[in-house]
Every structure is written in structure tokens, then in C-alpha cells.
Amino acid sequence: MVKVIGLGDNVVDKYEHIRTMYPGGNALNFAAYAKKIGINSAFLGAFGSDAEADHVQNTIHELGLDISKCRHFNGENGCARVTLEDGDRVFLGSNEGGVLRENGLNLTQDDLEYIKTFDLLHAGLYGYTEPELDKIRALSIPISFDFSDDFTIEEVERIAPKVDFSFFSCSHLKTDEMLNLVMKAHKLGSEIVVVTMGEKGALLYDGTKFYSQEPELVEAVDTMGAGDSLITAFLINYISKIKENELDRENIIKESLNEGAIFSAKTCLVEGSFGYGKKY
């Protein structure tokens, strides 16, 4: 069985309209969703010293994630302010990662030896991981990176050559802009490029052909984490199955995209990224 690690951000998403905070963050969501799917997973990031950090860590202990290599600093944990509009999450602001932004990860040789034991590492634009990618690349384990929706072309040009899987949220782009982005990321070096388009589903390019995936439509309670859960389920299915049968790549991609869509729909029926709300 594969095991995976999320590197970078954890936050509390503070839902201002109900005064409730939920654990989240791209890297932590990935690790939590992988655990929910039944995969051995870990998270490596930084925690603050406030009540928000305590809530995230208490939740992680309940989930059973390995956080043995995480950093702890005095100061604010990552925090975002959120509200909901007809089930769609709307971000109102954040402290931009709190102590993670202020201190960085600064991976040591011991950290790298630990990371080398995993089958896949996932990071993202908000995790302040870019300075660490060259070190991780040298370990020869697959790297997945989520560029989210507010990436710059300069960031794509710097990061895409260093990662195996590139993910983008592209609901805001025109079709030709999106296709140009996909082709560019692949040409730069990413083996597989996936763009999510909200209610229009997802599109994947592997250098040979395009694959489209329709969304599983549900009456969403909360869309927080929908993209992260699609990414996680796709990656878990893909890396697990491609190890067993590299020759069936086309069918594995199709099956993995479908699993991603199904898992993403289930996430939309949960409050917050994966529940565990606490009043504040």
C-alpha cells in the first residue's frame, strides 16, 4: 500500500457567519483526505501557539495523522476568514499562513530522509514550499503541486519543471487561456496537468491526449475542500494502480479522475474541509 505526505500549509477556516472554525489548508486537507480514503498519510508543516493551532492539532490526533516532523513557533497559526453563499465558500481574508510565512520550513537532512520514505509528496502555492522543491526533487519521489487559482505565469515557469503533477483551478479562465496553460505546464516538465473548472468538471493532459471528467452533481452543503479532495482521490488511485500496471495508463487515468469526482462530491456534503468545527 502506498503512503503519502502533505507538505506546507495548515489553517483554521473561520466561518464568520456562524462563529465556527474548521481545520483546513491545502497540504493538511490532502493528508486528511488520504487518511479518510484509507491510506497511510502524514503532514509536515508549522503550528502556532494559539487556540487555533491547538484545535488543528487536536483534530489531527483524532484522525491519526503522523505530524512528528512538524515545526512549532510562537505566534498565530494559519487562519482564513470565510463565509458561505448558497453553499459556495467565499474567502474574506487571511493572515497569509501566520507562523509558516514568518519562519518557513527549512527542511533538514533528517526531514529529507523521512520524506524519502513516502510514495508521493503533495504541496501547494500557499504552503511556502517553493524554496524546498529542489531538495525534494533530488529524492526522486513524485511531487504533486496545487497552483490554486491565483497563480502567476512566473510561478508556473519556476515550479512546473520541478513537479510531476500540476493542478490548477481555472474557472476564471477562457478556454483558450486554459488550454495554453495546460500545454505550457506540460512542456515545462510536469508529466500530468489537471485543471478543475467548478461545475464544468475537470480536464487532464498527459502529453498524449486530453481527458475530461464531468462533475458528480450534489446539493452542496459547503464546497470548501472540493478541489483538494478531487486532487487527493485522483492521485491516490493513480499512483496505486500505475505501480501495478503501467500498460493500462489510459484506463487508470479515466478511473482515477472518476474516483476524484465522486470523492469531491462527498466532500461538498460536509461542513468545512472535513468537519471538526469548533465555536470561537
TrEMBL record:
Coiled coil location: none
Keywords: Kinase, Transferase
Domain (Carbohydrate kinase PfkB): residue spans on this chain: 15-240
Keyword Amino-acid biosynthesis: no
Origin: domain of life: Bacteria
Pfam families reported for this sequence: PfkB
Single Gene Ontology MF annotation: kinase activity
Membrane-spanning parts: none
Family: Belongs to the carbohydrate kinase PfkB family.
Protein name: Fructoselysine 6-kinase
Organism encoding this protein: Clostridium beijerinckii
